[in-house]
């Protein structure tokens, strides 16, 4: 079971990681920018809908890595 953390995820990197690791148990993408997280979520939804790709569960979180406490 592979879980992946994408730190400083931006608007695109977590999607690329998800596409390359479709067997991962889950991906957590963390970025400080709310706008970046919003764009990332939109791109993930589009990739699943338009391309009919099976992507691992991907959670996009807006947080400062220095203050973030993962569960």
Describe this entry's structure for a reader:
The protein has a three-stranded parallel beta sheet with strand order 1-2-3, with helices on one face. The protein is globular and about 35 Å long. The longest helix is centred in the middle third of the chain and has 17 residues, at 34-50. It is α/β, with parallel strands linked by helices. It has helices at residues 13-20, 34-50, and strands spanning 3-7, 26-31, 58-62.
Topology:
Elements: E1 3-7, H1 13-20, E2 26-31, H2 34-50, E3 58-62
Parallel strand pairs: 1-2, 2-3
Strand order of the largest sheet: 1-2-3
| Oligomerization category of the chains in this entry | single chain
Structural class: alpha/beta
Q: Beta fraction of the residues? A: 15-25%
Helix content: 25-40%
Name the helix and strand elements from N-terminus to C-terminus, one letter apiece. Answer: EHEHE
Discrete helix count:
2
Using the alpha-carbon principal axes, give the shape: globular
Would you count the extended β strands for me? Answer: 3
Largest sheet: 3 strands, parallel
